[in-house]
Write a sequence for this structure.
């Protein structure tokens, strides 16, 4: 179109109550447009206006060819994609008020009747029309369904997203003098303070000839991250900071721990972290000793059990041990699983030797069964009964967790054992 007549043409189009009131909308020529539908709509528009065929019908025809300076007799040429005009003004057809659903179908999109892909274009008297950006061409503008003519007179280009800008969260400043670090969360602040300003642990690397074997980590996560980097290490250092003897093979180190440190105290947190990298644990025994062993061992391995497995398999397995064995090793069980599992499994009466409880039963039935034996019979087997009820006599488990009949009789048995003077013997 002649640039000199473009402004007049646009002004005349704006008077028809079109989409943009004199503001043209452009589509790229390679936009996915169903042109056959556009031609149908153009024909409909022309028919409504009483002009016969629409403007699109004559595109490339004799009349349009005269306007462009081409010979009428010159054969039509199909322009390649790069030779074709990049944009075409949609205001050529704005004399017809197309519905939003019709416009969406022509664009070949899934736009609902309330949405429309648009972009404004302005015309300057001193130059050609300005071409909207790709972002504007693809932006989605909601079209109001109201009858307000002021709303339908123009369509504004909007952003693809209307999210509000994120408000930066306040950060927590470290309270130690001279420290200017800030943290987004409280636990990160505490981790920083415990690791830098007030270290509570010092984890030494247990791998022989490692630089961090003498320079400990103040944070367990950093220590674990470091230890995972070691591969194919053959020699190790004792995990106890007051020992640090070396070098040991893995088997030799385990023997060293059970020989030299079984009488000591429970591992500190830093030592337990290093112990965990060998997949070992420190299992407490009834006499105050400790056993260093694999984490996969049954907690009653010190009684001769050879089973190894996961925690869930250990729970299912514990019920196959007699109650007297579970009671003897309840300290070890409490390290691996909840001590409550001591109360579930096989139980044999020490008086009549009858197996009262099955692997899936709790001790309720045993307590009820023992009640039928006389006080004299219970007194004869007082030590054996005390062995079976060690978790209750040590106050690690309480009779109050059971219903009244069982709890009341359990307390009565405990009083009888106290009277017999056998409790101190079983707790040693």
């Amino acid at each position: 179109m002649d640039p000199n007549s473009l402004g007049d043409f646009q002004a005349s189009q704006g008077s028809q109550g079109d989409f943009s009131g004199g503001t043209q909308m452009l589509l790229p020529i390679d936009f996915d447009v169903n042109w056959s539908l556009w031609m149908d709509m153009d024909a409909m528009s022309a028919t409504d206006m009483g002009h016969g065929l629409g403007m699109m019908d004559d595109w490339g025809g004799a009349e349009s060819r005269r306007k462009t300076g081409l010979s009428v007799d010159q054969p039509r040429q199909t322009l390649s994609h790069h030779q074709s005009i990049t944009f075409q003004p949609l205001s050529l057809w704005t004399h017809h008020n197309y519905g939003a659903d019709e416009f969406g179908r022509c664009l070949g999109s899934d736009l609902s009747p309330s949405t429309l892909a648009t972009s404004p274009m302005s015309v300057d008297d001193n130059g050609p029309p300005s071409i909207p950006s790709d972002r504007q061409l693809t932006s989605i503008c909601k079209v109001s369904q109201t009858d307000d003519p002021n709303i339908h007179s123009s369509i504004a280009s909007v952003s693809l997203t209307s999210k509000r800008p994120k408000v930066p969260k306040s950060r927590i400043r470290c309270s130690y003098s001279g420290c200017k670090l800030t943290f987004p969360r409280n636990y990160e602040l505490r981790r920083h303070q415990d690791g830098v300003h007030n270290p509570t642990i010092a984890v030494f690397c247990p791998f022989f000839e490692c630089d961090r074997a003498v320079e400990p980590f103040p944070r367990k996560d950093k220590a674990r991250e470091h230890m995972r980097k070691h591969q194919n290490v053959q020699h190790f250092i004792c995990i106890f900071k007051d020992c640090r003897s070396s070098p040991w093979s893995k088997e030799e180190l385990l023997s060293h721990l059970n020989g030299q440190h079984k009488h000591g105290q429970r591992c500190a947190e830093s030592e337990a972290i290093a112990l965990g990298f060998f997949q070992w644990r420190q299992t407490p025994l009834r006499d105050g000793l400790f056993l260093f062993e694999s984490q996969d061992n049954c907690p009653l391995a010190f009684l001769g059990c050879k089973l190894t497995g996961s925690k869930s398999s250990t729970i299912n397995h514990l019920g196959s041990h007699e109650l007297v064995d579970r009671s003897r090793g309840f300290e070890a069980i409490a390290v691996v699983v909840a001590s409550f599992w001591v109360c579930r499994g096989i139980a044999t009466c020490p008086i009549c030797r009858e197996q009262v409880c099955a692997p899936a039963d709790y001790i309720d039935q045993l307590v009820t069964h023992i009640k039928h034996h006389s006080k004299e019979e219970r007194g004869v087997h007082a030590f054996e009964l005390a062995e079976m009820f060690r978790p209750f006599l040590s106050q690690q488990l309480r009779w109050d967790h059971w219903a009244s009949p069982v709890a009341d009789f359990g307390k009565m048995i405990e009083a009888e054992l106290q009277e017999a003077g056998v409790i101190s013997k079983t707790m040693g």
Notes: The CA atoms of residues 347 and 357 lie 5 Å apart. The chain has a mean pLDDT of 70. Residues 404-420 form the longest helix (17 residues).
